[in-house]
Amino acid sequence: MSDKEIPDVIVGRLPRYLRALQRIANDGQRTTSSQELGEQLGISAAQIRKDLSQFGEFGKQGTGYSVTFLVSQLQQILNVDRVWDMALVGAGDLGHAIAHYQGFADCGFRIALVFDSDSQKIGTHVGGFIVQDSASLVAAVKAAKITIAMITVPSNSAQMVSDQLVQAGVRAILNYAPVILNVPDEVHVQYIDPVIHLQRMTFYLD
Amino acid sequence: MSDKEIPDVIVGRLPRYLRALQRIANDGQRTTSSQELGEQLGISAAQIRKDLSQFGEFGKQGTGYSVTFLVSQLQQILNVDRVWDMALVGAGDLGHAIAHYQGFADCGFRIALVFDSDSQKIGTHVGGFIVQDSASLVAAVKAAKITIAMITVPSNSAQMVSDQLVQAGVRAILNYAPVILNVPDEVHVQYIDPVIHLQRMTFYLD
């Protein structure tokens, strides 16, 4: 089945499976089951089996899944059996936090370039990176052939930054600014929005 | 239909509908359609109609939805027709960024207390709040009757902070630390994990 035919809602669950499996691997466990994964993730075992079956036969009836095999298969499916260089645009508090984030390395990602338009920040060090002038963003991102970027600028400049990133060849944007970005169809955008997560929980509170 | 019977995957879409509707309202538009919402969100119009129909009849055939009415209905359903006080634990870069975040106010949330265990940070100001000693967390959160918290501490202390929050009566936790928290069944946890979003996009890249 080609990528295009896999429903996006299934694709959205695969990184969570991979995350859980990597945790299980770190605990030294060699096999797991859809039941165990399901309990960790709050997803039914049947759903997990059904999702994975879209991509092939990964487990054996009765013996479960080999953790390392399923990790490597999911890494291939998600194209993170390689390391993607990323551009980070916005070197404020949030940009600093992300530049220092330790969680990218083992998951297929690496920050390669950091930009800001504030002359006070340009040339300073953020998490091992020298902040570059956003004026050079298009040329620098294009030269480095970077296709993934994170936007941590204020809301009112997020669309402009997004336009520049797209112009530079970026095809996947993780946007922390609370605005919806207009991008061409072939560019993927994901949003980090704490309000969405909070409201999902208040539904259950009273 | 009681809250318990609504599938969680539908609940997860409601905040996105509300977000889109508030944007439409801000643009001065008075009515909208499931088609328009669907285009903005990348969700089919049929799915949106089906989701909303779980909660009642909100639109009229041919005339669409009244934006303000649907906003107020969704706010009621999600329990954000009130303002929830929140505790923020961890006053590092990420905590600073969140304390300064302007997006909570109109969405039903307000930071009320900020904690850190670092003596260098305790007593300092972060986004209008004085950072309190985490040693006083349980008593202070309990006294303020706060039921929602955000965790922005390093991974190795996140579970301890979570235990303290639960002990203090917190029932919903938004966790930015890249670890899975063990909480009692009645406590809700949502995770902000950039890797999950990035891997969801690399699936489509090559």
Secondary-structure map with pairings?
Two copies of one chain form a homodimer.
Chain A: H1 8-26, E1 31-32, H2 34-41, H3 45-53, E2 59-60, E3 64-66, H4 67-77, E4 84-89, H5 93-99, E5 109-116, E6 125-126, E7 129-133, H6 137-143, E8 148-151, H7 155-167, E9 172-175, E10 188-191, H8 194-202
Parallel strand pairs in A: 4-5, 4-8, 5-7, 8-9, 9-10
Antiparallel strand pairs in A: 1-3, 2-3, 6-7
Could you walk me through the main structural features you see in this protein, from its secondary elements to its overall organization?
The structure is a homodimer of 206-residue chains. The first copy, chain A, is an alpha/beta fold and 206 residues long. Chain A folds into two domains: 3-77, Orthogonal Bundle (Arc Repressor Mutant, subunit A), CATH 1.10.10; 84-195, Rossmann fold (3-Layer(aba) Sandwich). Helices cover 40% and strands 19% of the residues of chain A. Chain A is built from eight helices and ten strands. In chain A, the strands form two sheets. Chain A has a seven-stranded mixed beta sheet. In chain A, helix 5 links the parallel strand 4 (84-89) and strand 5 (109-116). In chain A, helix 1 runs antiparallel to helix 4 (67-77) and helix 2 crosses helix 3 (45-53). The mean pLDDT of chain A is 93. Chains A and B meet through helix 1, helix 5, strand 10 and helix 8 of A and helix 1, helix 5, strand 10 and helix 8 of B.
Note the quaternary state here: homodimer
Proportion in β-strands of chain A: 15-25%
- Separation of termini of chain A? 44 Å
- Report the biggest beta sheet of chain A as strand number plus sense, adding barrel if it closes: 7 strands, mixed
Number of domain modules of chain A: 2
Helical stretch tally of chain A: 8
Structural class of chain A: alpha/beta
Low-confidence stretches of chain A: none
Q: Count of DSSP E strands of chain A?
A: 10
**CATH homologous superfamily (4th level) name of the largest domain in chain A:** NAD(P)-binding Rossmann-like Domain
Strand order of the largest sheet of chain A: 6-7-5-4-8-9-10
CATH class of the largest domain in chain A, named Alpha Beta
Biggest interface found: A-B, 61 and 61 residues
For the record, the CATH architecture of the largest domain in chain A stands as 3-Layer(aba) Sandwich
Helix content of chain A: 40-55%
Average of pLDDT of chain A: 93
Radius of gyration of chain A: 19 Å
CATH overall fold name of the largest domain in chain A: Rossmann fold
Task: Encode the helix/strand succession of chain A as letters.
Answer: HEHHEEHEHEEEHEHEEH
